[in-house]
Design goal:
The chain has 76 residues and is an alpha+beta fold. The chain is 29% helix and 33% strand.
Length: 76
């Protein structure tokens, strides 16, 4: 999946990936996609919940080598 920007949260644990995502997504234009890379398993449930709460769209979560790549589309 193609992203407009990537945020590396490897080594960070809840709630820091969500906090950093909330900060980073403010820098994107509506409709752009942010890729968040994390190794905290909690992101699989935390990010979809955060997206539902904020109106952003969780496009998908891919697991690769113990890392989770989460794609979030900023609300338009």
């Amino acid at each position: 999946m193609k992203a407009d920007r990537t945020l590396d949260c490897v080594g960070l644990y809840c709630p820091m990936p969500i906090v950093k995502t909330a900060q980073e997504i403010k820098e994107l234009a509506a409709g752009e996609v942010l890729e968040v890379i994390a190794d905290d398993k909690g992101i699989k449930s935390d990010m979809p919940a955060w997206c539902a709460k904020t109106g952003n769209t969780c496009l998908g979560i891919e697991e690769e080598g113990g890392e989770f790549h989460v794609f979030v589309k900023k609300q338009g």
